[in-house]
Amino acid sequence: MQHDRHAGAHSTGPGAGHHPAVEQYLETILELEEFGIPPMRARLVDRLGVSAPAVSETVKRLEREGYLTLDSDRVLHLTESGREYATAVLRRHRLAELLLVDVLKVPWSQVHEEACRLEHAISDNLESHLVKLLGDPGACPHGNPIPGSANVVDPGPLQPLASVPSGTPCVVRRIDEHLQTQLDHMRELEQARLLPGQRVTVSEGDDDLIVLNVDGVTVALERIVATEVYVSL
Ligand SMILES: [Zn+2]
User: Which domains are seen in the chain, by residue range?
Assistant: First the structure.
């Protein structure tokens, strides 16, 4: 079905008639910002799995439409309307993940991918029902804040699990959206119970693997995976 881009008072949010792929660009820029990674076109190529020319073309289009600007260091910046749009998509993504885990009992490791599809189909009206049903949750099942919620809890300073020194206990807080796209790694985290709120201690590590103690169980995790699991000390 074709949407009317100019329908409704708000034409900058999901449902404004943009292709899901375009919404994914804005959302990804916001995610990169969240984790302190400068959003650049090359990162969108990595994260969205599309070609560099395709990214350049869509970025140009989003720039023309007033959603973002590109500075002299090639870093992308969301405009006010771009940020509003991206925030709405990300909020729906995280609400959808919670709906899938809490209500539909879809395994934790699988919900990101499903939510990537659902987020583009959630209207303002459905979103308000979701917020009510789920009790205005502050975080998604991967520990990431739900923008606009009154219940967001600041866990304090976070760092990648990969950078925690041996012998230091820490608590898993957030799983990067990028890691969530990798189903095998998400299953590993699920099986090892490395979910938000879990206490762990790094016992040893080398360049490739880190070994963790999770409630008395020894778990080996690839270092590359541990760079996208954020913890607090
Ligand atoms: Zn997600």
Answer: 1-153 (1.10.10.10), 159-232 (2.30.30.90)
Cβ-contact 161, 173 below 8 angstroms: no
Residue 170 and residue 160: Cα distance in Å, rounded?
11
Q: Which portions of the chain are predicted below pLDDT 50? A: 1-11
pLDDT of residue 213: 95
107 Cα: distance to centroid of ligand 1 (angstroms):
13
Distance CA 11, CA 84 (A): 11
How much distance in Å is there from the Cα of 31 to the middle of ligand 1? Answer: 10
The CA 232 to ligand 1 mean position distance, Å, reads 20
pLDDT at position 206 = 84
Please identify every residue whose CB atom is under 5 Å from ligand 1, which is an ion. 112, 177, 180
Q: What is the Å distance from ligand 1's center to 72 Cα?
A: 31
Residue 228 C-alpha to ligand 1 middle, in angstroms? 13
What is residue 229's DSSP assignment? E
